[in-house]
Write a structure and sequence with these properties.
alpha/beta, Rossmann fold, six-stranded parallel sheet, two-stranded parallel ribbon, 11 helices, 14 strands, 43% helix, globular
Length: 296
């Protein structure tokens, strides 16, 4: 199949392009320039040659949210998704649109699967809602299957949140807990994310909202404890909520207001997680890194 991917130069997109290419697909990157009005026809022409479109475009969420940056977060998600939908609506070939959202959609009151969703409040939840709505604006008269992935924190040893969390553990021997650490921490290993995307592509019955998180539910403190123990560290250092709010402003809600999420749709349809627990993920990561070093 020919697969077009937006956000292909990001932390997830770069590796996803490589992963899908190994499955004998032709993968093409949707360049940022194609989302400019002057290049709209070029975008439409590209999408019309593709079987699948995967939308990962979006400015990083882990920065201070000034009013200007909140506008960038909005535009990088809403406008790019809107243009992709317009292109797919005119395509005769595209049959699957996979668009990204986040578990930040949910509130923090209890655990949610896809069937009992309750939207949270605040900027991130509203952004996710608008982002998803743009993806759902596909013309219902087409045969395009739509999947919206609500992603947890994606773990990989070479970047993202895990690399930042490991830095104090490896350098000064302490693990950092955000606030009291009682907030939920929804995560997924990058291998499981990519395997789940492949699973979605190959199973035509899968559609709609799908939670892409590990089945294990952890608090941020418990997550950090397991991480520290894996590296033989015992010291946990809590960073007070007031300090995090002072440094990150409104963006602190990402760290302090976690979501408890269950990937029930994937489990129900028979998806097998390589790393259903954090301990399994860390053991697999250690094994993979060892095999790479031996191969070199």
């Amino acid at each position: 199949m020919k697969i077009a991917i937006s956000g292909s130069t990001g932390f997830i997109g770069t590796s996803l392009c490589q992963y899908l290419s190994t499955e004998d697909n032709e993968v093409v990157a949707i360049q940022r320039a194609l989302f400019k009005d002057d290049n709209k026809q070029d975008l439409f022409d590209l999408i019309d040659t593709c079987d699948i479109v995967i939308n990962l475009a979006g400015a990083p969420i882990n920065k201070y949210w000034s009013n200007e940056y909140k506008e960038e977060l909005y535009e990088s998600r809403i406008f790019s998704t809107r243009m992709l939908v317009a292109a797919i609506n005119k395509s005769d070939k595209c049959r699957l649109f996979i668009s990204t959202s986040a578990v930040g959609y949910y509130d923090s009151a209890k655990c949610y699967d896809e069937s009992n969703a309750s939207k949270g409040s605040g900027f991130l939840a509203e952004l996710c809602k608008m982002w998803e709505q743009e993806a759902l604006n596909l013309n219902t008269s087409t045969d395009v299957r739509v999947v919206i992935m609500r992603l947890g924190i994606v773990l990989a040893p070479d970047g993202g949140a895990l690399k930042r969390m490991l830095l104090p553990i490896k350098t000064v021997g302490v693990a950092v807990v955000a606030g009291d650490g009682n907030q939920s921490f929804a995560w997924i290993g990058r291998d499981d994310l990519f395997n789940a995307i492949s699973f979605i592509i190959k199973n035509d019955a899968l559609h709609g909202i799908i939670n892409l998180t590990a089945p294990e539910q952890l608090t941020q403190r418990r997550f950090t404890e397991i991480l520290a123990r894996h590296y033989n560290r015992k010291h946990l250092v809590p960073i007070p909520s007031c300090v995090i709010k002072f440094v990150y402003g409104e963006a602190s809600e990402v760290m302090l207001n976690g979501q408890c999420v269950v990937p029930r749709y994937l489990i129900k349809n028979g998806f097998q997680f390589k790393s259903p627990t954090l301990k399994a993920y860390l053991n697999n990561m250690t094994k993979d890194c060892k095999q790479i070093k031996e191969a070199l």
